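Weekly structure sync - notes
Attendees: PM, LS, DV (DV joined late)
Agenda: review two folding runs queued last week.

Item 1: First target. Sequence and structure tokens pasted below for the record.
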Amino acid sequence: MLRSGIMRLTLVQKLIASFFLIGFFLIIAVVYAIMGLGTMHRMVGDIARNDLPAATAALTLRDAMQAQQRAVGRLQIFKQSEFKELYNRQSEIFQQTLQQLLQQSGGADLGELSQSFTAYSTLVERMLRGIVVSDEVLKRAAERVEKAIETVRAEQKRILEDKLAAAREREAKTSAWALSLALSGVTLALLVATLLVYSFSTSINKLQKATHRIAAGDFDHDPHIPPGDEIGSLSRDFMQMAVRLKELEQISLDASPLTRLPGNIAIERSINRRLREKTSFAMCYLDLDNFKSYNDRYGYIKASEILKETGEVIYEAVKRLNDPDAFVGHIGGDDFVVIIDARLAKAACQEIIACFDAMIPAYYSVEDRAAGAIEGIDRYGVPRIFPLISMSIAALTCQPGSYATAAEIATAAAEVKDRVKEASGSNYIIVREAGVIEA
């Protein structure tokens, strides 16, 4: 009866029945593929929300720990309060990041890291209270913290690799089943099934390539998958994840939030690179004179504008000297650094001071500009007259073998800077080899 009913179907009805069967198989294939892609979408979202921030936090822990060690070392040598404040800030960053990592560690064991950092902090606090703590003990405690950080990083890496492997396995399984179900309708409509499989295979291959390219650091890669379906949404999530990764990479640089110039870590790396390469260069330490009095009179907003504009003036002045390896950094506050070819040190000092002196009067009122000075209170609470802000530059020519470390160069430049500030107005001193001084 059923067979006779089928035989009585017209060609159109058979075609309709055939397309119905095709649609049935294709719908099953599409639903399964969508479910698989949805699972992949959630897995990628979980990686972006938890594992990537946790990996970034581990890098932050390492940088904060290294910064604490440098601050403790400098505090032991120079006994200056700013190094204690630097240590406290970095310790607070470490603790905040560790707390964040505890909330999104993704399964990594942080007990050893917490205990080792607590032990290290206890030793440093004892030292700050005047209790003698040997360098060897501090070094071993710091090494335990660094080892614990590396252990956490390795565990996070393993977790991330497992999740990526699961995503690839899910991707492969989804592709295989979707393709198998789609091929079931090929006998009825080869062209339709082929086009559908081709579309899915192409998109999945693009996503796979995009995963590899992003993992390799190509954050600007676009898989060129059109929007409108789950694959397009997944592609958009991949691109958003890549943008976020690129932003995190940029944030990891220690740029000043005000001037956007590289900070202390980048400065130290730039000097150390030149020391390793045994090249001659000039380390210029730039400091603004009478800046505090300006800040007290005009407020921190105007003072911040001066710092921002000063950073731009220094950067543009150095750029005009056409030294491709020149470096401009912002130590913090009103202190800047220029590292340039030793032969261009004098030209750099003169160009920077000329541009700075031309810029600074515009930040004063007409009355103060006409008077050439402002009234204020010095650091000892005594009323006095302060000239307009000027700049002091201590340029230290560093020949191969004359200095061993960046800290040694910074100390020598700071000593020269104190001599420059004794003169009024903007001035510079260049200390060349054999102690020859050029003012």
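Item 2: Second target, run right after the first with the same settings.
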Amino acid sequence: MLFQIFNMLKNPIPKVTNQFQYRAIGIINGKFTPHNIEQLNKGFLIDNKGEKIETVVLGKALSLIKKHIDLTKSYYWIVYPKNKNTQNLHLQVAGIWDPYQLNDFPNDSSKTNFSKLLEELDLKDNYFSVRGELVFVNIQKKEIVIKICPASKLKNLKNKNFKLVIKGELSLEHLNSFVSLDINRDGNSLKLIRHEIIEKDLSENN
């Protein structure tokens, strides 16, 4: 049964389709609590440890919440991270990963363990994939800054570049390189687990 479900599952964090694909996306298990029950697009995501993260819900996910989601229950949320420092994480909900409610699986599939399904997809709760340009290294604070450039070329405020501050250490010699990072969320912080240098010093190519 687990193998059958795995084959039907959509990966909440898809495989990269382009070597230089910029992105910042993660998955978090928790409950969404809106500031106002009549306005569901803003609130907190509260994880299993009771940590609160300021959260907004994007349009496509908002309709899912209204139609399918019980706000008293925990779900796996597909989110985009934003921050200005390592103590203040902000999330944008892009979707909900719920194989049972949002797909046509047999009734007994609800007995399957969500975390095991994630492991089959090489994922886990609080995992983030970040890909972008390393633009700053703070050796003393052990922090790095990654610039993310959205794929859309439209000159729209919603599509502008942004930066993520991440706890971790990378060599200064990697500045301006395109990097792929595996990140773990810890409270309101994003922490570097491992990294891969995709292309050294992008400035040399400009």
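Discussion on item 2: The beta strands are 23-36, 39-47, 52-57, 75-83, 89-97, 127-138, 143-148, 162-167, 178-186, 189-199.
Action: LS to circulate a short write-up before next sync.
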